[in-house]
Amino acid sequence: MTARRSTLLACALILALGVAACGGSKNTHIASANNDGLYVTANHITYQLQISRELNQYSAEDSEYVKGLPAGTPQPTADQLWYGVFLWAKNQTGVPRTTTDSFKIVDTQGNTYTPIPLDPNMNPFAWTAERLPPQQTEPLPNTIASTGPTQGGLLLFKINSSAYANRPLTLYILGPDNLPQASISLDL
Fold first, then answer.
1. Residue segments in the chain with a per-residue pLDDT below the cut of 70
2. For residue 37, what are the domain limits?
3. pLDDT at 38
């Protein structure tokens, strides 16, 4: 009986050490979500992925999402595609907070993509950093972006079509120091 207790105690100790080793430093923790609808917190703002998908600039709906490109932005080549990430955010703190405008997508091969800045005067879906009062959301209620089919602000990326082979894609929400504060796994 004593050998059995010793074995159980040793196993419990090994398990406890293994779980403790999974902790890591508070400064290196990145909140993450694996799919649409889950929430992550970055720099005191709660973000939610509404939807992410390839966009077809020739369809009636998607043609609205690719408006407001910077002058001279080339269309995707035969090896590239438009990819839209639609986010919702909420300031759930008691003080005003600003959402980020710093994001990147990374595929499993390390290819990194940054969003193309869209002119919000030409594209009402465009994500822009906003200073949110407590309990306020982005996009603002009763705006085209919040009531439209995606119910989120648009981050527009031009990515290589090879990303289909390099899935999953990960969206990183970056903080003021350009370091990842949260990540969300994206469907493609």
1. 1-36
2. 29-186
3. 82
